[in-house]
Amino acid sequence: MTTTDRMLDCKAAFDEAQDDGNDLQPCPRCGLYTDSVIRRHRHTAYVEDEMNYVTCCWECFDIEEDYWDEQWNDYYGGLM
Ligand SMILES: [Zn+2]
């Protein structure tokens, strides 16, 4: 086996792994394995910007956004 063959073999194995859905990650919130787990900017206004980011799946992010929308509504509602 030549080096090139070995490299191609390696690539094929890699592609296969991708097809197998190995890019799925567990959501830190709900523990669900999904490919939608990424870092997102959430609807908060922490002074420390890192706090305004959350890593989770779409479902959890939806819940999170709804929660913060409500918090903001309460906040602004309280001002009026
Ligand atoms: Zn989740």
Task: Give a verbal description of the structure.
It contains 2 helices and 4 strands, in the order H-E-E-E-E-H. With 80 residues, the chain is α+β, with helices and mostly antiparallel strands. It has one domain (24-79). The strands form 2 sheets. A two-stranded antiparallel ribbon has the order 1-2. The radius of gyration is 20 Å and the shape is elongated. Zinc ion (ZN) binds at residues 27, 29-30, 32, 56-57, 59-60. Zinc ion binds at residues 27, 29-30, 32, 56-57, 59-60.
What is the beta-strand fraction? 15-25%
Unreliably modeled segments: none
User: What is the number of E strands?
Assistant: 4
**From the alpha-carbon coordinates, what is the Rg to the nearest angstrom?**
20 Å
Shape: elongated
Helix segment tally: 2
| End-to-end CA span | 75 Å
Encode the helix/strand succession as letters: HEEEEH
**Helical content, roughly?**
40-55%
Number of domains: 1
Question: What is the strand arrangement across the widest sheet?
Answer: 1-2
Alpha-beta content class: alpha+beta
Largest sheet: 2 strands, antiparallel
Mean pLDDT: 85
Heterogens: zinc ion
